[in-house]
Each structure stands twice: as C-alpha cells, then as structure tokens.
Amino acid sequence: MRTPVGRLLAIAALVGGGALLTGSSTMNPYYDPARPHHRPDGFQNVDPAARVPRSFAEFLRWQRERASLEIPPPKMDLSALVPDLGFIRGRTNHFSVTWIGHATALVQIGHVNVLTDPHFSERASPVQWAGPRRWQPPAVRLAELPRIDVVLISHNHYDHLDEDSVLALNGQDGGPPLFVVPLGVEKWLEGVGINNARALDWWDSLQVKDVTVHLTPVQHWSRRTLADANTTLWGGFVVEGTSRGKARRVFFSGDTGYSREHFTEIGRRFDGFDLALLPIGAYEPRWFMSTQHVNPEEAVRIHRDIGARLSVGIHWGTFQLTDEPLDQAATDLVAAREKLGVGSREFVTLRHGQTLRLDPFDKP
Ligand code: ZN
Ligand code: ZN
Question: What's the gap in Å between 327 CA and the centre of ligand 1?
C-alpha cells in the first residue's frame, strides 16, 4: 500500500471524498422512516444539496489540482504553551477549556471533565505510515490528563476518532470514561473492546454525573473504510452543567458545513451558550470542502446563529488536511469577525495547550 494509490486511499478515507463505493448492503438498525436524516442503509444530511462524500472523480480532481500547489509553511508560531497542569488536574469546581490540538479539547464544568474528539497519535489516518502527520504534538499528553468523565465523539473520521487514543482513555486510572457518540459509533467502539458507550440520535439527550449531554444535527458525513460511508451518524454536542452554582452551557459542533437551518434551530432550542467550540480550519478548496467544512466566516455565522457569548476556533493549526496554509484560519477569522461585526473577544483562537478560565473572577 505504500504507493501513490495507497496514499490516495488513505487521504480519501480521511477528508472529503472518494465515493468509490456508495451505498451499503448493511441495514441501518436504527432506521426510522419518519426521520428525514435516516436511510435504510445509514444516514444522510437533510439538505439535499449537501451531498457528501463527493464523487471519486471530484476527489481525484482535487488531488490533481493539489499536486501542483505549493502550500506555504505557517508564518504564525503554532508551538504549544506549557499547559497549566496544576490548574487542570486540580479538580476544583471551575469552568474552563484547554485546547490540546485539532478537535481535542478538555472542557471542565464544575467537577466534570469532558474531552472532545480525543486524538493523541502521530497521524490522522487509517495507517500510521501515511496520511496527514501532526505539525504539533498534543499539548497535553494522555498521561497528563485529569481523570476524564465523559468523552464526546462527534463522528468517526480518523482525525476525530483515533483508536489508540480511545483505548488509552478506556484504560485510564480510576475506571473508563463514558463515551457518548452518534448512532452506530458505539458498535465500532465495541469492536475494539470498549463497552461503556451510549449512542444518541439527533436531539436525544442523556444525563451523566452532573451534566446533561445532547446530540444536535450538523452537516457532515462519516466513513472509516471505503465501503461504510454514512453508515454511522455524525453530530454536534450540547453539554449543560454547573460550576460554582452557575448554570453553564457549551456547544461543540464537531465537523460541519454551514447549515443555517441547523444552527438557528440549535439557537432556538437553547437559551444561548457560554462557550462554543467551532471548527475554523480545513476549508480549501471551497468547491470541494464547502458542504462538509465551514470556513472562518461561516464559523462566525454559526457563532451568531446559536447565540454564543464566546467561541473558540478549533480544527486548525495541528494537521495539514486541506489546501490552505496551516495558520490561514486564524488570519481569516480576524477578517471574518470584522466583516460581520463580531468583537475580537467574542470569537478567539488559543495557542495549543492554552487554558481559558471562564469563571468571571478568574484571570483569563
Ligand atoms: Zn470529518
Ligand atoms: Zn475533521
């Protein structure tokens, strides 16, 4: 497989496309014909224009165009800060977010530690000899994490669901966390020996310890192999909890294209968010990516649609997945904020390893 074809397939399985085999012979055990995102053989976006994965011909066109591109290295310093392990492991009652890299963030609400899309491996790929390699090591190592109570997995793409990382978390000291996943992903977890997962459909919710977790619709897709496209669901998460007696609400979208319908609906159902973790990277070329990954301007629109008081841009600066330079998202975010009239402190980026303390009397 260490051939251009093998490399192409590794990339095809990861981002964007290559519907070499569409449809699936497996039945969707959750199929409910009353739900528009259900199909007998899997799931789909409700917007018929959001056709993902793209065709294999379109994927090849992207790869052909990409071969002649020279993507400049980042100008920005993307290196990690030394994480404040004393704070994040102190397990005091607080509200904070620490960006570990890509879509992996530690959200601490009260006494509950929530980890999003944990990825601590060298490559975001089905194989560790090919596929996108890390630009930055994880800013907090697995062994340095506090005990994790809840792991949220937004979908099964390789840059969001990493086998070695979930196995390590399952074996953490003090007992495994609860894995909360979209429908079907729990079966994959069972296949690698992880049995403490709960699967949710869009708008389902679940109480874990002192937090309530809801799965929301987003516009994306799923695949682990060339034959299982969209057989498991994808989604975003709302987490509601309490820190120091104050109710807190967080939104983590996972990967998504811009769907005004989904995000205004999320805004309608919940009364604002204290924190949103939104993807801002992996968006070029737009002709290929726009149905599945927002650009920074669309991320700012999501921030407004859902009524977030503070958003943190993630899913950039860690893996070179697409055609924009690794630091372009942060630059484009500044322009997008200005264009849409959103203040610089309302939608921010963090350094890898940086913790944002969100209790009002804490210093940022
Ligand atoms: Zn994805
Ligand atoms: Zn992704």
Answer: 19
- What's the token pair of residue 43? 């799931």
For residues 61-79, give the mean pLDDT.
92
Q: How remote is the CA of residue 341 from the centroid of ligand 1, in Å?
A: 29
Which ligand neighbours the alpha carbon of 316 most closely? 2
Query: Could you tell me which residues are beta bridge partners of residue 180?
Result: 152, 198
Beta-ladder partners of 278: 313
Residues near ligand 2 ion, CB 5 Å cutoff = 159, 255
Joined together, the tokens standing for residue 219 give 């516009």
CA of 126 to the centre of ligand 2 (A): 14
Residue pLDDT, tens place only, 148-177: 999 999 999 999 999 999 999 999 999 999
What phi and psi values does residue 71 have, to the nearest 5 degrees?
A: -85, 115
156 C-alpha to ligand 2 centroid (Å): 9
Give the Cα separation of 268 and 15 in Å (integer): 31
Measure 323 CA to ligand 2 centroid, in angstroms. 14
Nearest ligand for residue 124 CA: 2
Where does the pLDDT of residue 55 fall: very low under 50, low under 70, confident under 90, or very high at 90 and above?
A: confident
Instruction: Flag whether pLDDT at 94 surpasses 50.
Output: yes
Name the phi and psi angles at 95, rounded to 5.
-125, 115
Fold of 85-357: Metallo-beta-lactamase; Chain A (3.60.15)
Output the CA–CA distances (angstroms, integers) from residue 323 to 19, 71, 160, 284, in the order listed: 20, 7, 19, 5
Dist. CA 291 → ligand 2 center (Å): 13
Ligand nearest to the CA of 322: 2
Mean pLDDT, to the nearest integer, of 175-194?
98
Domain ranges of the chain: 85-357
- What is the reported pLDDT for 364? 45
Q: Is the dihedral of CA 53, 58, 63, 68 positive or negative?
A: negative
The ligand that comes nearest to the alpha carbon of residue 223 is 1
Q: Which ligand is nearest to the CA of 220?
A: 1
